[in-house]
């Protein structure tokens, strides 16, 4: 069971990203801790909804790894969501964006993105 899930959500208006108040790192994919008695897939969907207000469909598991800095066990999921208004009830989130995958490198260094995620996004 992973400690943390990350959701890579795509739609007609791009890839969903959030900017956290602490700014470390500045832009990330939505995600968070898996709660007790919660499946990783359900956790990914819940985290996207809590952090962005988007009700995403989680479609596949992209892979897992131990984070090189934190040591947390992370599972990455792909999902889709239609174009919609984004809003966060989480005070730790200060901005939500949807960006074309071709523009991700302007917000996230591509070398820091887990290789299966890069392959999924064709970047």
Automatic annotation (TrEMBL):
Keywords: Hydrolase. Its cofactor is Mg(2+). One of its GO terms (molecular function) is hydrolase activity. Residues 1-121 form the Nudix hydrolase domain. Pfam families: NUDIX. PANTHER family: 8-OXO-DGTP DIPHOSPHATASE-RELATED, GDP-MANNOSE MANNOSYL HYDROLASE. Belongs to the Nudix hydrolase family. This is NUDIX domain-containing protein. It comes from Pseudonocardia oroxyli. The lineage of its organism: Bacteria, Bacillati, Actinomycetota, Actinomycetes, Pseudonocardiales.
